[in-house]
Please model this.
Amino acid sequence: MTVIFSDILAANQRIRPYARVTPLLEDPTLNAQLGGRLLIKAEGLQVRGSFKIRGAANAMLARLEEARAHGVVAFSSGNHAQAIAYMGMVLGIRSTIVVPSDAPAGKLARVVEDGATLITYDRVNESREAIGAKIAAETGAIMIKPFDDELVIAGQGTLAVEAIAQAGTMGARIDRFVVCASGGGLAAGISVAAQTMLPNCAITTAEPSGHDDMAQSLASGVLVTNPPGMRSFQDALLTATAGDITFPLLQKAKATGVSVSDQDAMMAMKTAWQRLGLVLEPGGAAALAAVLAGKVALNGQTVCVTASGSNADAEIFAKAIL
Amino acid sequence: MTVIFSDILAANQRIRPYARVTPLLEDPTLNAQLGGRLLIKAEGLQVRGSFKIRGAANAMLARLEEARAHGVVAFSSGNHAQAIAYMGMVLGIRSTIVVPSDAPAGKLARVVEDGATLITYDRVNESREAIGAKIAAETGAIMIKPFDDELVIAGQGTLAVEAIAQAGTMGARIDRFVVCASGGGLAAGISVAAQTMLPNCAITTAEPSGHDDMAQSLASGVLVTNPPGMRSFQDALLTATAGDITFPLLQKAKATGVSVSDQDAMMAMKTAWQRLGLVLEPGGAAALAAVLAGKVALNGQTVCVTASGSNADAEIFAKAIL
Model:
């Protein structure tokens, strides 16, 4: 149960017709202010607004016949759900999304539009994992977990293959990736690619303050779980704990973690909008916020941050930029 | 005094280290709704937030020694000014920007940050062209006009070279460009490239309703000037009349023009934000608005719209997406 570089290369080949090569942006003024090169991987411009399409596409394409015969099931009310529903539409695969009954309808509109079936559950009394597993057992549908899945991790790792190549054409070599982290699927995938392609490249995870289970887990060497009921404005980054596959991969890469306040995330959203014309959702701004708020210093190095998604609520986005 | 395809190829080579290759985006849901393929050239992600860097870079690089010796001068309080100031900073060229004394400071902050010298004039009693010409005569500075300049037009035309190549890798052939138009520099440059690369490709300009001098000029065959004092929410598209170089080029390409209301532009800004995570400024939304509002029908064809810029005021952008 792990992921190696060849899995990422296979994923990169598989997903290419479906996932976009997103821009790697930099701004000379920001570079001068920060004292290094800051490269921003603009995954908010990815299909359906986040990097999640990479993992979803890889997981579905790798088992295409089975998925077409029996469908797929996922539990998520966020970007993973959007990616699964979209790929289901494009590939002709029935998708079922298990969502809490109190999930905001707006967040799910596009999932429904893309043809997914929604199954709601009671967040307090029911387990989404159990409901998902039951559907999988009854229908033969493939369960695609949001992060602790080898194919999903390998798919997310394609971001690094792309970014490292793009940096090369810009005359840059990435010294550190700073990655928005929740369950750690993206960070783990990037760490596997970076360890092969750029052996001295460091990996830093960025999480919401008060919800930094990953940073604590990496520092202590054991999986730390966030206290239940914690909320954050950075709503895409609220997984309670890292995964059984993602965490060892990040440990192996000697990853470290930092956390950013909601205020830091708001400021990063504003800066990305003003300086680069980029839309970031709060959770997708954590890595950029970590650099802008000085949690990760550039020190003359080249740092690549994942701008992971753009699916922000209009009210929240307006508040950030005004 | 004209522009030919080889001028655009020369520009494309010249500007490549400075201008980004911006993404060409599409959304299968929008395609299905519109009945064709809609390709969106996301120039809001261009350096300093608009396509203007293409023309500015070409004009400055083509006369680099002279520009370094004597500086450049431009009159603009918008995206052309930002592009000139940025390229001045990057290339080590003194830039002077002639702006109306009542121009909003916010719009000029980045120009000043990039090291340009501002010269203000009285919009009512003074002529910016005369002031610019005087500075050029006194200092030897090169005047770079916003659109009616062969090198600027050739630079803007590189957008089409890029978009046509990108469309090819997406299995598409562009049947029509719809281009946000003010003085017509971008539209003229695109028309020259398209006439060589895709001989049957149509060119449509998109302007604000009530300010559609280009559409009227193209329809009547003579240069029409907008009545003085007209304003529009689409503030990047308020040039009073097309240029002596741009207009004949667009006539030769048998271009036609459409106009869109401010309401159409607002709706296009919202759709681009929701569906693609893209920031558009009002004037940069005119071409997309023309397609979404049905002013240009797809009819099974592939249509490329220029999403020309992202330098929107925060208040206006918030209003559009809420």
In short: Residues 150-169 of chain B form the longest helix (20 residues). Chain B has a mean pLDDT of 94. Chain B touches chain A at residues 20, 22-23, 25, 28-29, 42, 44-45, 49, 89-90, 113-114, 273, 276-279, 310-311, 314-315, 317-318, 321-322 (CB under 8 Å).
